[in-house]
Fold each of these.
Amino acid sequence: MHAINRNDFQLSIAPMMDWTDRHCRYFHRLLSPHARLYTEMVTSAALVRGKQVRLLEHSHEEHPVALQLGGSDPVELAKAAVMGAQAGYDEINLNVGCPSDRVQSGKFGACLMREPDLVGDCVRAMADVVDVPVTVKCRIGVDDQDEYADLQRFTTRMIEAGVDILVVHARKAWLEGLSPKENREIPPLDYERVYRLKREFPELTVVINGGITTVEAVREHLGQVDGVMIGRAAYHDPFVLAKLEADLYGTPLPERSDVLDRMRIYIEAELARGTQLKHITRHILGLYQGEPGARGFRRQLSEGAHLPGADWGLIEAAMAPLRQAA
């Protein structure tokens, strides 16, 4: 396996379906120069059989950035991993945690936690053909397979297959009876189970995920595990990433308006390519979360970004009252 530096995994931003696209990652990189970024899940079939290479598109500024794959065919995943590595991704991550129906029907995601040997075969197949780290993102359990011993067995198999880094969402997944949204909220968080995993497998780099929203919480978790992965907080209140960057790496806290000003060149280049403004502004709506004027900023962008001809001027107009108040 590729040599890794545990510090590289101290802070990362979760792969989120229909959310962490390349525009989102570019924005997050401006907020946190050090955070590890992840793509939304791309299925191995889409890359290998569908030849949808456009799904691998990313900008140079995003690094370090990982490609998250979904699938359960070792041969196909190996081919997809090679495509990801050739496209320049710094890590290939296998999704063994997503509980959506679409994922289950394709036999990937959380249902694979019931088949650790198959997951091990998938990981080994990918690790044999790429020089970047192959990592796994999983849950603490699935359905009635909910004993610590199940997670322990799964982890042992991952290590045997060559996994050095395990990202653990500290909730189990109910594949029957709960929607994907409910699976992010209803099963209780069990951070202690992830801590125990780290104690029992000290050689493994363990990254914890699930319900973590504040700098203080991140600090607390880092006393027990190697890294923290931020999920929904990164888009509800993206400026928390800048606060984490300042706390963990000593990077000066930027002004929110300066972050947007630095987005301008990217946004104008994307508009020139034919990208609609709404595909970018949806990621920045929460930038002023909790600040005076945040609602007006969100409203102006939400109402205007989808209109024909919407450009940087809309963002400038939405920022104007906030600049005056600063």
Amino acid sequence: MAALTPTAPADPVAPLVPEKAPSAPLRRRAGRPRVWRGFVLGLAGLYFLVPLAASFVFTVHTPGQGISFQAYTGILGAEGFTDSLLLSLGLAAATIALVLLLAVPALVAVRLGAPKLRPLVEVVCMLPLVVPPIALVTGIGTVLRWGPEHLSRTPLYQTFLAVQNESFPIVLVLAYTVLALPFVYRSLDAGLRAVDVPTLVEAARNCGANWPQVIGRVVLPNLRTSLAGAAFLTLALVLGEFTIAALLGFQPFAVWIVTVSGSQARMSVAVSILSLLITWALLLLLSRAGNGSRSVGSVPAAAPASSKES
């Protein structure tokens, strides 16, 4: 009977055998997506930059007269520029505040208490994409004309006059809130899907936080990126909206640009370029505000230490 010879244990300090390097065809195939990605990004950059460059050349070059920056230097002194820009920024701020005040509590409530209603809420929020702005402004104009005729002897008559104040038309804020609702909903819904809101709310409630503290110190900090995205989309929509404001007879920034284009074409193009740059700058500011570190929020000071750790 042959004697059994014990096998030697594997040497724990034996050097590891290096893996074989990928072959050249594999390296070439791995490098192809990067080449195509750069090519597509380059085409996209040309698609956006070439029209901007052509517009800039149109504003500074006059055939037979050379280069002049008069179209840019005369913007601040142009009649109506400051008033229209401040009006659009004020309308944008009011619209952002109103649409977030309506959308955030509603979506959080649906997420926590009635998740089965989410498809219905989504359909309602997406309806402004189906209704053309021309139809919306026709309905708004009909109501504004009907109100003073039938409510002249009621307190609502002053309300109809107040919402149409030319210095700050509240009716535009209401209309822009409806138009911005689909974009705000998509941004907030994506943020709520990425965060375990029920667990965060339950933990905050167990720590003694009331509902305003839960929303302000727990939910909103975790939706910072989504809130910044919703605010930027609303800002871009308000600054570029023309149809509703023009048909209702108001003159925010977009309507002023079209109005001045008839007499000063180069200045209108120059203002359009500057408005695009301003929008990009605001996008960068909102992106930096939204890219802050996520936190589950602070809990009230009265909460015990064991609850804070949980």
Amino acid sequence: MAGDEIRGTAHGTAPVPLSVLDLVTVGAGHTAADALRTSVALSRTAETRGYHRYWVAEHHSMPGVASSSPAVILAHLAAHTDRIRLGSGGVMLPNHAPLVIAEQFGTLEAMAPGRVDLGLGRAPGTDGATAAALRRTDHLDRSADDFPQQLAELIRFLDDDFPDGHPYRRIHAVPGPVQATSAGGVQSRHRPPVWLLGSSGFSARLAGTLGLPFAFAHHFSAQNTIPALDLYRDSFRPSAVLDAPYALIGVAALATEEEREARRQVLAAALNMVRLRTGRPGLVPTPEEAEAYEFSPTEREFVESWNANVVHGTPDEVRSGLDDLQKRTGADELMITSNAHSGAVRLRSYELIADAYGLPANAQPLPRD
């Protein structure tokens, strides 16, 4: 597995490759089916406009986020795209048996050979009660502490290389490399590259130690971004995967033709976060509902703090904000999540950002060796 599969190519005037993080958001008055149709349209747009990869993130028990099953969504997107990289940003490893993840992503690799990423997180992607229901245990801290061991087991399943004497030596993730080594096998041993995701230092250090690519959740943990990236780079040890660190950051950004409209849209997304953080998760409200909502002083303070880390405004303003963020962090890739009530607004935002950077109107695949 080569680092070239991980590193992207910047297009137009973008300082680094640009990618998409899709939360499959569901707005008030819309259905999950509407949101998934938007995801198909967005993945196609991202592919033609030169975005490098398209990830979906695992969330649970959130009415406004329809991405509880990343592998299912990615299979759907694989059927509607040809070349953009598809992946999880991420699958929450403690929620699943490593063998199940290896099987799911082996299946995705068979559907879209050479363009699947497996991003892994150690958080539950939900509240504690829902995490307990997912994991069928109340010992959630133990699951997080076991993350390095779970990761090692998952990689063994992906590579099909448990040593002799291991209790899982005769267990194989299928589809997977075992089909290449079986009699008459012609399948490639290639498997999806593993990324570690994080919002603090734990996964940053682990990714560096293992020589894996790292994705940091700047969009909801901005205060930890630079310390985590520094820790990742300082901890990095070259591996068969990468000879140098490679870090992307997730960044919330929304572009509209007029600055006022961008403020209206991000206010609605912020109200959705207020409700989520106070135990009232729901569908993403409309801008009109957000404008009419009477925020308490505490809620208003949260909104101002939250939106301070959302790059929003006109396309030129968003481009400038993304450029500044990349310079401050030294990120090797920017993964943009545009959250809004309307799928049309989200789709248009990615088009406007692509236009602002002069990304190609119909990007073609890079030549293959």
Amino acid sequence: MLVGVTACGGGGSSDKASGSDAKASGTPSASASPSPTKPAGPPMLLDTITPQTGTTVGVAMPISVIFTNPVAAKARATVEKHMKVSTSQPVVGAWHWMGDRRADWRPKAYWPSGTKVRIDADMTGVSNGNGRYGVHGYTHTFTIGDDVRADVSVTGHTMKVTRNGQTVRTLSINAGSPQYPTWDGTMAVIDKQEKVHMTSCSVGISCDKGSPNFYDLTLPWDVHLTQSGTYVHFSTGDPNPGSGSARGSHGCVHLSLSDAKWFYGQVKQGDPVTITGSPRGKAPADNGYADFNLGWDQWLTGSASGQETSTAL
């Protein structure tokens, strides 16, 4: 699941692999005889598949599949083979298990812009290795949009935003303080909200209203980077970020009000935000969609079936 230790505050949401967004690949007829090799038992279901069908996402967005129940290590190669990735142009990638309920598929390098992608998770009759069997399939289709990237320098107090390789703007920022440093590394945008209520008590920083680290704020133009609570946003406590003010955050990246609104309008789910110069180290790969914080060799160690080239769409 998308969980972790929080920094600035706020929660996240996930996209359910149910309803109209997940299309069953087949329904057994009432007269069908049960297979003797597939004993009856509780079903294996998918809780979520991200991205949602019909969306346009950024070049660092993984396909993330979350199961409702644990998948045993002995069953993962078979499960991976039943989750087919098809693309409009060949893409080399692989599955990687984040624990026993989440499997992500990411390209070796970023997705090429304009790629059409389909994930067919045909779980019908597939075992999770723990006595559960899939009962139907799921299909999601999405598109890779413009290559929008943000590169944040903690020490330089800047964020450079590029689109399809061209610099669009360089913004002034403040990142985390020495006490609450920002995560380093590449984090794909999880989602964004026009307003988020953030409190220091809810994230374990301070519940004491007299503490200098206490806050209870609703802040605008919030771009969500980690499930633990890292955002790029405007903060009323740091209205003019940059090297001149040098005010540290509780782990978020602060922009001015006008810059935060502009940046909010530029980015989408899956766009990579890469932060350098922080002493905290890279965000764990499963803290949101920080999949590219693992090198390719590291990524393959978490795959049961190894590197593959996507099927032609």
